[in-house]
Design a protein that fits this description.
The structure is a homodimer of 356-residue chains. With 356 residues, the first copy, chain A, is an alpha/beta fold. Chain A folds into two domains: 11-236, 3-Layer(aba) Sandwich (Aspartate Aminotransferase, domain 2); 238-353, Aspartate Aminotransferase, domain 1, CATH 3.90.1150.10. In chain A, 44% of the residues lie in helices and 16% in strands. Chain A contains 13 helices and 13 strands. In chain A, the strands form three sheets. Chain A has a seven-stranded mixed sheet with strand order 1-9-8-7-4-2-3, sandwiched between helices. Chain A has a four-stranded antiparallel sheet with strand order 10-11-13-12. In chain A, a hairpin with an 8-residue loop joins β10 (262-263) and β11. In chain A, α4 (95-104) packs parallel to α5 (126-135), α9 crosses α10 and α11 (282-293) packs across α12 (319-335). The longest helix of chain A has 21 residues, at 238-258. The two termini of chain A are 41 Å apart. Chain A binds chain B through residues 1-2, 5, 7-8, 10, 38-43, 46, 73-74, 77-79, 166, 168, 174-177, 195-199, 201, 216-222, 296, and chain B through 1-2, 5, 7-8, 10, 38-43, 46, 73-74, 77-79, 166, 168, 174-177, 195-199, 201, 216-222, 296.
């Protein structure tokens, strides 16, 4: 990314773009065509929704945290009738519940959901959800922004119609570039009337990318960065990358429990570990960690503000990074008098890493 | 940009973002609030249009080349009634013509136009257009993507309601980040019903930026790059930067004419020099320049394909860069037998730079 920009209407850039798209298809496990989009992940969510719905149509969303709730907001911004299947923040939506609501709303033709909900640290069972949604003849659109490269994700095997990711997070590139894969059924849907839009016109974008082109000026530097990051994933091996995320997440959870704290989500995702924190201490912990140990972790959002902290381990995190953050976290708890003696956290971390 | 990413919900990033916005306001010569948007310039155009129009409303666009024509396409994508004031490719729209059409369409409440149309190399008289549009009580929205930092642009003094720029071009940062400034009148317009949209909701974005925040994950690296580029402009001085662009453009035009060729646009912009090329030679010239001299120049688009070449000089171009490209261009003409003897072009360039 620090190299000179190359012009986007050249064979050189076309090659970079084609290889980047191939790399994305590899991490999404799909043969579906992929669109690159200069926008945050939210823009890509909107792109999926406007291209797969008509005005006033009824859609179903799963609402289990800040990011999945965004599907509802986008749908309502377009005047859609949005049926939300909710879960308590910290839980996933149960596939049986999704099925029940789908049965009660047979006119729903598209379901918009999320793989890993980072605001609560929850992982959803997308494989089961997709099976249900497909059996009802609807399309399933999955925000996989924080699961790509971190969780098992089988776009084609599970039959996911649209999968959305972005350049940051698991694919380790600065933010500003999003991508979407489109199944044949989703592409057929685009032949019918849809919401108005221009920049997010995915039919036009698919045609353009099919020719090795791009409809608008691409974020050249970010595409070049993602190109390199995807090479790194390929070199490490996608399965190894996902297993590394799983190991890191299991180790952090073991440490959290050894410290006498609770892992907040009932089904934790590998991207982040959300930890329930006794009232009044979350911001204190975050501030101390940053001021004294130079480590930044996230707090809770919305209703979880002040109730949880979140330790991120998504992307280029290896065992030593996990020791760095967990040891500092444990030191912070000790410094603040929230635990009496130290060492149990890192011991549990070590033992989990060594599967002892 | 090659430094480590900083998290966007931190004071450190807020400072960078605030200073970047201040820098943009300086180059746009405005006290209006500015929104940063992760998208190409086209996305920012759509953002302006969806926030300032209601479904089925009548709008006016100027249509004088590939990029200004995009306003028409975006308007039509939203089902607006689009009145287009056209000019021959190579000419600007005359302000009197704009006035005539506005008088004939008193129900037009917004005019979408362009400052410099790079597909033809034309500069428009936005100051006069804005005076007319304002006198009719309509809003004026200006795509200044290739004029920011290259042409005199007085957002407040001319009364421009929305001005759109992007990170590449005159502000010398890789593409992927756009920005828009909004006048008070344009912000009032947003209080009334508008087109559906979510990612492009500028009212929400303005509120968020007012608090030093951003509605979506910003393209952090690009904001950091733009922050630095705007500092460079400030150090050189905006007036000097614009005068440098004007000098470079005058010098290239003088060289083109000395080579017996024609500057294509009737009113040339400073960002690029479009040169009329005898039929059949444009692609040959471009290929030779690239293959033999390693210099890439643009060709014509749409109806101008094969009829013009365009030498870009927008952004970080100094006298030596201009000598590099013009001498290679002149060598190419000589190599291809399109001129009999060489030296006249660079001589004219030198004399124009020295105002001899």
């Amino acid at each position: 990314m620090a190299g000179p920009m190359i012009h986007h209407r050249t064979e050189e850039f076309r090659t970079v773009q084609r290889e980047t798209i191939d790399g994305i298809r590899d991490v999404l496990k799909t043969r579906n065509p992929v669109v690159l989009l200069a926008s945050s992940g939210t823009g890509a969510m909107e792109a999926a929704l406007v291209n797969l719905t008509s005005p006033k149509e009824k859609v179903l969303v799963t609402d289990l945290g800040k990011f999945s709730h965004r599907w509802k907001e986008i749908g309502e911004a377009y005047g859609l009738e949005v049926v939300a299947v909710e879960a308590r923040w910290g839980d996933p939506v149960r596939p049986e519940e999704l099925e029940r609501v789908l049965d009660a709303n047979p006119d729903v033709k598209a379901v918009f959901t999320i793989h890993s909900e980072t605001s609560t640290g929850v992982l959803q069972d997308i494989e089961s959800m997709a099976r249900i949604v497909r059996s009802k003849g609807a399309l399933i659109v999955v925000d996989a922004i924080t699961s790509v490269g971190a969780e098992r994700l089988e776009t084609d095997a599970w039959g996911l119609d649209v999968v959305i990711g972005s350049s940051q997070k698991g694919v380790m590139t600065p933010p500003g570039l999003a991508y979407l894969s489109f199944s044949e059924a989703s592409r057929e849907r685009m032949e019918r009337p849809r919401q108005p839009s221009y920049y997010f016109d995915m039919k036009r974008a698919l045609l353009s990318f099919e020719k090795g082109d791009s409809p608008w000026t691409p974020p050249i530097g970010l595409v070049m960065g993602l190109h390199e990051a995807l090479k790194m994933i390929k070199e490490e091996g996608l399965e190894s990358v996902i297993e590394r995320h799983a190991r890191n997440a299991r180790a952090v959870r073991a440490a959290v429990r050894a410290l006498g704290l609770e892992v907040f989500p009932s089904v934790p995702a590998a991207c982040t570990t959300a930890i329930a924190i006794p009232e009044g201490h979350a911001e204190q912990i975050r501030k101390h960690l940053l001021d004294v140990y130079g480590i930044q972790i996230a707090g809770g959002q919305g209703p979880l503000k002040g109730k949880i902290v979140r330790i991120g381990h998504l992307g280029h995190y290896f065992e030593s990074d996990i020791f760095t953050v967990v040891s500092a976290f444990e030191s912070t708890l000790l410094d603040l008098g929230l635990i009496d003696s130290g060492g149990r956290g890192v011991e549990a971390l070590f033992r989990q890493f060594h599967e002892m």
